[in-house]
Amino acid sequence: MIRPILAHPDPRLRQPSLPVERFDDTLRELVNDMFDTMHHAEGIGLAAVQIGVHLRVAVMEVEDNPQRVMINPRFEPLGEPMDMVEGCLSVPGVQDRTKTRLDHVRVQALDLHGKPYSFEARGLEAACVQHECDHLDGKLYLDCLSHLRRHRVLQRYNRLRRQENSQQGS
Ligand code: NI
After folding, report:
1. Where are the domains of the chain?
2. Which residue, 11, 48, 116, 142, is most buried by CB atoms nearer than 10 A?
3. Ligand 1 centroid, distance to 95 Cα (angstroms)
4. What is the pTM of this model?
5. Are 134 and 85 in contact (CB under 8 A)?
6. Over the stretch 132-165, which tens digit does the pLDDT of each residue have?
7. Which residue, 103, 98, 91, is CA-closest to 154?
8. Interacting residues of 164 by C-beta distance below 8 A, sequence separation 6+
């Protein structure tokens, strides 16, 4: 089931998510809905908080890598910072360049059964892991930008939202 995605500046996006403790049908349904929602929005990653569920769950599907379900994820830095053009389904319509994402990380997470697993992510997938883990802590990629870039991207974003609102109103 496709669920609505919260958009910045919704304050719920800024609340940290809690660790998952129950690996039950409700969790499986949440993860299914997250994949449906991400596919529908043509995204490569989605955190549960983006559909208003404050649990540490993220899904990801980046390029040729397998579909990932990351529950209570953590990552260990292995690489160097890189330039990355990032966008977010919760900040629709704009993108900007971050410079702080590491190009290689090792991820440790639980699967849908609560079983620990790990994998290494590089490049875009590594950036996506860091982006989704930030969501679980109530952070957005906007927070990774310089003041000037953040100001400019938010101006573009607010202009887009005003245009959309005025079109809906007419
Ligand atoms: Ni995002």
Report:
1. 11-80+100-137
2. 48
3. 11
4. 0.96
5. no
6. 999 999 999 999 999 999 999 999 999 999 998 8
7. 91
8. none
Q: Which residues contact 148 (CB under 8 A, 6 or more apart)?
A: none
Arch. (CATH architecture) of 11-80+100-137:
Alpha-Beta Complex (3.90)
Beta-carbon neighbours within 5 Å of ion ligand 1: 88
Provide DSSP, 89-157: TTEEEEEEEEEEEESEEEEEEE-TTS-EEEEEEEHHHHHHHHHHHHHHTT--GGGGS-HHHHHHHHHHH
Element (H, E) at 87: strand 81-88
Other Cβ atoms within 10 Å of 159 Cβ, number: 12
Retrieve residue 106's tokens. 């090792």
Instruction: Give tens-digit pLDDT for 16-75.
Output: 999 999 999 999 999 999 999 999 999 999 999 999 999 999 999 999 999 999 999 999
Ligand 1 centre and the CA of 22: distance in Å? 24
How many CB atoms sit inside 10 A of residue 161's CB? 15
Reply yes or no: is the peptide bond before residue 9 cis, omega within 30 of 0.
Answer: yes
Task: Report, as residue numbers or ranges, the catalytic residues.
Answer: 132
Asked whether the beta carbons of 115 and 108 are under 8 A apart, the reply is no
